[in-house]
Amino acid sequence: MSPSAVGCFVADGGCACLAKENGDVRAVGNCKSSDSYCDHCGCGSADLSSLPVFSCSSSSLWSDSTRLSESGKLWRILVASAKGFTIGAGLKGGLSLFSVLAGLKRRKALASLGKKGVITNRDAISMALKETLRYGLFLGTFAGTFVSIDEIIGNLAGHRRTARWRALVAGALAGPSMLLTGLNTQHKTLAIYIFMRAAVLASRCGIESKRLGHICKPLTWSYGDIFLMCLSSSQILSAYVLKQDSLPPSFRSFLNTHGGKDTVILEGLKSFILGMPSNKFNAIEKYYQTKGAHVKLDPGMKTPCTIIHGNQSCGGHFLSFIIEGYKRALPVYLPVYLIPALIVHRQGLMNRPYEILARGLLGTARSSLFLSVYCASAWIWTCLTARTFQKINVPLVAVATFLTGLALAIEKKSRRIEISLYCLARGIESFFSCMTDLGYLPQSLNFKRADVIVFSLSTSIIMHCYAQERAVFRSKYLNVLDWVFGVPPPPCETPRCKNGKQD
């Protein structure tokens, strides 16, 4: 007696197909969630409407939502908005918390010196709370808007018919949610970074494409991430010394903290590189005296080594800087590893907490070493380049800071592309800012909210890839996206298909 299909039991990995034989119901096979037709239960066929469908997956919101009532779809929108808010507020709040704690000592010292314009701890906490709320509303609104538009288009025009372009439109229309972070707050760096992420996903799609695979082949170069980091470092670190106003304020503050040099040193180094009068040498000598070092700067010197590290040797300064830089880097990377562990590995954290926490601590230690070596190598490469050519100028600074990017090799391979893209976004912004100030780019190209346009275009590409080209994502990002938006339903799970129709 052949078994007769009685239903499709939907689970995370696909559907377990049930059949009735001799009065007993048993599993006869399964189909992957990406299959358009199930050989066991007939999922996708015209008689699917007669089969009962059960679900045991609470995490697959997207596939479940296709079977929900109107109130259920509204619930899906609310859940996505809440989860988006949680991620936005959690990430920004965690970073703001460490920023406030890191600045407590500095603000106290400045206040004790009677300096005017120094923000109080209360003001710093208030600003951190406002930023946390804004970013929470931004991501919450983005998630809710995307899910709402996805549901509306699917209901009006059919899930199956709109499957290839629905997420593209929804992602673009959800992009202006960025305005909730502040109507007058520009986010060029964030927009460029998200655009870089979209470009990476698009390039991965191109690599897999039969028509474009040969064109995108160079993008598979193993050390492309390090090369991008070197390019980014050449612009970022040169600007850090020569033109800090071309860098975003928050990133400039980050470099001033981890660069480990007082503004007096940076101003003197800038004057020396540009060949300007050495009227800042006295201030540098006094600065080193406050540190217990007696330094005498020679106006006719060829290299900036004495300006950079006083009477220390280049090698000695490199080693001591790594130790001090490591202490400064640890508070930066603790939230970077801790917060994602609570979101991405939330289930594994309950089952194997020691393993996940150990990996987080190891990642924190490794990334902190990278940041300290990166900053230390910026100074020693500058010294070595100047000693080699017995002079220093803007092109040589660009060469020295290009080599600094090699420090990225310390990082884990999976994180290299993230860091290089993060820095590339800031490097591009700084480069165009410098070109505009030098008169090479007209001011008319500065659209008022170009960041929103670029961000919307990027999220359109990213969400389309999420819905249609899931293989181009790394699993950890898919986990987060699935948690917020849900897994896109296979064709046999759309409502009209389940009623035996093609929409």
Characterize the structure shown.
With 503 residues, the chain is mostly helical. It has 3 domains: 4-57, no CATH class; 70-220 and 453-484, no CATH class; 224-448, no CATH class. 63% of the residues lie in helices and 6% in strands. The protein has helices spanning 61-65, 70-112, 121-157, 166-174, 188-208, 224-242, 249-258, 263-274, 281-290, 305-309, 314-344, 346-351, 353-389, 394-404, 413-437, 450-468, 475-485, 495-498, and strands spanning 4-11, 14-21, 24-32, 53-55. Strands 3-2-1-4 form a 4-stranded mixed β-sheet, with no helix packed on it. β1 and β2 form a beta hairpin. α4 (166-174) runs antiparallel to α16 (450-468), α5 packs across α15 and α6 (224-242) crosses α14. The longest helix is centred in the N-terminal third of the chain and has 43 residues, at 70-112. The chain is elongated and about 75 Å long. The model is unreliable at 1-14, 23-28, 30-68 and 490-503 (pLDDT under 50).
Short description:
This protein is mostly helical and about 500 residues long. The chain contains 18 helices and four strands.
Q: What brief labels describe this structure?
A:
503 residues, mainly alpha, 3 domains, 4-stranded mixed β-sheet, 18 helices, 4 strands, elongated, disordered N terminus, disordered C terminus
Helix content: 55-70%
* The number of domains: 3
Would you list the SSEs in sequence order as H and E?
EEEEHHHHHHHHHHHHHHHHHH
Cα distance, first to last residue?
Answer: 36 Å
The residue-averaged pLDDT reads 77
Low-confidence residue ranges: 1-14, 23-28, 30-68, 490-503
What is the count of helical runs? 18
Strand content: 5-15%
In total, the number of strands is 4
Spatial strand arrangement across the major sheet: 3-2-1-4
Structural class: mainly alpha
